[in-house]
UniProtKB/TrEMBL annotation:
The keyword Transcription does not apply. It comes from Oryzihumus leptocrescens. GO terms for molecular function: hydrolase activity. The lineage of its organism: Bacteria, Bacillati, Actinomycetota, Actinomycetes, Micrococcales. Residues 35-209 form the Dienelactone hydrolase domain. SUPFAM superfamilies: alpha/beta-Hydrolases. The keyword Kinase does not apply. It comes from the Bacteria. This is Dienelactone hydrolase. Belongs to the AB hydrolase superfamily. Keywords: Hydrolase.
Amino acid sequence: MATSRRILGLVAHRVTTRAVSVGNDVTLEADLSLPDRATGVVMFAHGSGSSRHSPRNRQVARALQDRGLATVLLDLLTEDEERVDSRDGSYRFDIPLLAHRLSGAARWVSRQPVLGTLPLGLFGASTGAAAALIAAAGSPAVRAVVSRGGRVDLAGEALGAVRCPVLLLVGAHDEVVLRLNERALAALPRADLVVVPGATHLFEEPGTLEQVADHAATWFVSHLVAPAE
């Protein structure tokens, strides 16, 4: 059965919503897309106040799917936690909790019949980038990380323990976050920094998010190479 269809010349990959058990009796929702003959899987960690429905992450995910990568867009909070967080912001900067959830989701991926055979990468936006880096520091299974406008400073001492290749993508006009990423670059053992011209924090300027998607896809394709069968 075909897993995708074409709309206006673009490939629209089939998406299924899955319940993801991350431990401690917590179940999160995730949107999974698995292209035919996928060569890797990338899990997305959204930023503060966002969710798996982030339009920016979804656009990047489509670019990865077009390059043969499976994607998992994950809610890092439960519905009850999201309601509380929308009122008082009590969860969005709880980076250890978010990293724990992401690590639990990575273990869930490893148990899935097809996904579990694929090399794993993490894509983090804003605070989600810090969670992704902490999760990568604690798991040799993570083969690559991409950060979009990441608050990588919130990963703290875990930066020095990240052994996989890391790509930091920052807008040229996102000055505070750019400085934070420049400092993190020195702490990360294997990292590159790409500054996207004309972009602010959310990459809302024409063409800038497309550059993010292209850089991310190239990075993951380069570093998530499935073993030959």
